[in-house]
Amino acid sequence: xxxxxxxxxxxxxxxxxxxxxxxxxxxxxxxxxxxxxxxxxxxxxxxxxxxxxxxxxxxxxxxxxxxxxxxxxxxxxxxxxxxxxxxxxxxxxxxxxxxxxxxxxxxxxxxxxxxxxxxxxxxxxxxxxxxxxxxxxxxxxxxxxxxxxxxxxxxxxxxxxxxxxxxxxxxxxxxxxxxxxxxxxxxxxxxxxxxxxxxxxxxxxxxxxxxxxxxxxxxxxxxxxxxxxxxxxxxxxxxxxxxxxxxxxxxxxxxxxxxxxxxxxxxxxxxxxxxxxxxxxxxxxxxxxxxxxxxxxxxxxxxxxxxxxxxxxxxxxxxxxxxxxxxxxxxxxxxxxxxxxxxxxxxxxxxxxxxxxxxxxxxxxxxxxxxxxxxxxxxxxxxxxxxxxxxxxxxxxxxxxxxxxxxxxxxxxxxxxxxxxxxxxxxxxxxxxxxxxxxxxxxxxxxxxxxxxxxxxxxxxx
Length: 462
Ligand code: ADP
Ligand code: MG
Prior knowledge:
The protein is α/β, with parallel strands linked by helices. It has helices spanning 12-17, 24-34, 37-44, 63-69, 72-83, 113-116, 140-151, 170-184, 195-207, 211-219, 237-252, 273-279, 292-305, 312-321, 327-343, 349-357, 370-381, 385-389, 395-411, 417-423, 430-445, 447-461, and strands spanning 48-52, 55-60, 89-94, 160-164, 190-194, 223-227, 256-261, 283-287. It is 52% helix and 9% strand.
């Protein structure tokens, strides 16, 4: 049995060196970093795997989980396998079909080293192309720069340095450059390389006293894509040294270098000064979190690409719910697809809310809207929404309106009093203050109302 707890804390490179070639825990751990904890818990925590020759058999607890893993998660696992330089096939099995005939759990430790650490196995994800990248104000600059480097790989700003937070499309853009060059300039050699792999490759080469081979291989490349340089460790002097020399070689020979990191070069204190200044020499662009429209577009596209049927209301809800990263949006769609298959009914807003309740909120904040508040208050206090936003002044309606304003003031991030007032057809922002005060006084004496408000807060905050 393999459990994640057994996962040793050693980074992949050191595991390779230690000769511990049981990669499944490493692969799982890498996947874990890329998807929300709940998704991991649902789909991955119970997965077991075994190696048999060149195949990784992944054993799913049920046929449904298996079915669900077939799509993007299978690709994600495949990506991680590639990133570790392993050239193996994946096969998904479900528990029901695991019989005696299937390979015994030997946890084979025979993945040949020669196959593991060599970078030529690392491929580009064919889905990461320019036309599948959704542009918006947060990333169009980076997109244009990446396209520029792809179109003129020998004659562009060198290096091109792309930085930004996790899951905002850096790897996508880098691979898009790689895919573009591979398609349009097939005579040019493209090398995509996560920094960790560069480092582990280098360790391997030094250990085998094979540094010259390492250099020949890397320097034969025309377009070098070095991803996530924030993972180059502080103490890896030799790695930094080697990158520096590789960089100089590429630079002098007019070969395109593209670097990504989670922050700008000057904010990477572990990098030696001279490497930092090399990285600052070309063009530096950033990717920021997508705005609402871009998030909607990304969700729509991803749903279409995966054949997931979702209505505009659900897309809108998800775009409101996830505000900073793209990966959790993909995960959310995937959970919905799973739920819909599992419960044999189409995805709707209700299902979206239920399924995603379990997901951790980004930054712990969920963006509540006036519509949410209206709906919940209307239902709890039994007052029609149209009455609440109208001018009716009967006691029950006025109370509902006041409660709405009170909740809006507490829950809607960044909303001004005037904004809240206008949402309820009021001109004067002091109306909101008045309502807020009124509700506070009421809940002091009215236990029933206090409980209702607590329930509503709970529901709105999830
Ligand atoms: P990073 O390398 O910055 O952490 P990735 O490039 O791995 O992020 O992106 C995470 C996921 O989000 C990928 O599946 C990628 O395709 C998707 N993604 C991110 N930004 C966009 C975008 N603008 N358009 C389409 N997909 C995107
Ligand atoms: Mg990345």
